[in-house]
Automatic annotation (TrEMBL):
This is WD repeat-containing protein 34. It comes from Amphibalanus amphitrite. Keywords: Cytoplasm, Repeat, WD repeat. The keyword Protein transport does not apply. Pfam families: WD40. One of its GO terms (molecular function) is dynein light chain binding. The keyword Coiled coil does not apply. The gene is WDR34. It is found in: Cytoplasm. One of its GO terms (biological process) is intraciliary transport. PROSITE patterns: WD_REPEATS_2. PANTHER family: CYTOPLASMIC DYNEIN 2 INTERMEDIATE CHAIN 2 (PTHR12442:SF26), DYNEIN INTERMEDIATE CHAIN (PTHR12442). InterPro entries: Dynein_IC, WD40/YVTN_repeat-like_dom_sf, WD40_repeat_dom_sf, WD40_rpt.
Amino acid sequence: MSQTDPEPEVVVPPADAAVQPSLVAFLDRAVPLVLRELERSEKSRAFDGYQLIEEDDDQPVRRLLTLRLAGRPADTGTTGDQVSCLSWSCTGSVVAVGYGAGEHQSWCEHSTSLALWNVHRKDLNPNQPYQKLELRSCASYCRFHPSEPSVLAVGMVTGELQLYNLSREEDPLLGTTSGIIQGHREPVSALHWLARSAGYSLVSASRDGRMLVWKYSEAKQQLQLVKQFQLMAGQVPRSAGRRAARADSEAGLTALAFSHDNPDQFTIGSEGGGVFLCSFASEVPIAAMTGERTEGLLNPVTSTFEPHQGQVLMLQCSKFHRNIFISAGSDNEVRVYNTLQISPLLSISLEAEVTAAALSPSRPLVVFVTTGSGEQHLFDFTRRGAPLHTMRLHEKPLVVTALRLNDKQPSLLATGDAKGAVHVWSLATEYVSPKTHELAEINRLGGVQTDG
């Protein structure tokens, strides 16, 4: 027989005894507030563009947001609805979206807009940008200032440049090239902010074959032209297959990229497929040219690379090695070049139409490529063959018209399509974090010649 201690008697207080007067008073104050906020949340449209990710956490690429101007239906694509350009601010929070028509049969007379969303704002409305600029024509290129998050340059299909200070909500326009005789007269194809000893200059390239250098005068409140370069058709290699009939006519510029280590060195690409190494310090005048306004035009070209068999769509210099840059062309090839070698070191050929490409800001030899069938590929040039990842951006084939990676936040990228939608994507860590072998490989490619 065992002996145990008697169990203590449990006394359960009446239900009313557990309710303190202070708790009752708190609930009287809090419940109406909570109910009011729940009712506001139910009516809110703040997350209309957010798509819940139901896949596993290790999904390589996630769609975070879909941004679309209110009044632009998702299932129609009318004139001016296409996303024509994208740019991330230097803080990595704001994305600028330019719109335009896909094709122009004559002079552009469309009225379009440029919209700005802060993707990190708590009150983000994906159908309503926090700021919108009304434009006199279709936007063809836009570029935020590299250190001033409120300064934005916009290039138009008409060739006009506009400079904005977005912090001035009432009158953000700082200056324009409208009325400047020496300005561009064809669509602006590229913009670049160039750091010089006297501050930043704005460099513009256009399909009129000119690369112009501008400074903003605060005293005169306008953009002033300080230097002019010109590419001639005679400089485009015959092997490109699209050389103009006259060697002394202009060759349209379609791409521009400056070296990260040497501000005097840059590359340009042409409509005919030519890829050229150039010097900003050049003072060589254009020897012969038809037409007017030849005074002051300089020839920047110092050497020529093996051309694309079609228009050059993009150029980008590596920030991991001064000799390396990439190109993409309408021949559906993406290439890696060494500035010391004429032929490309590496190349990737795609079956689908290439519409845009961009180097990863954090992985030296990873490139993102979008296509006319709505696919996005991630290629690693250190691994030959199949892409690292492929995803279809839309259920139905839809042309991806713009691509921009976020230099400040490498895990974010934005794509725009032919129906006016911008999709913000998040990349998994494996596609953002550099691998130890990549730096060694790009140093090898940049330092020695290879047959690829």
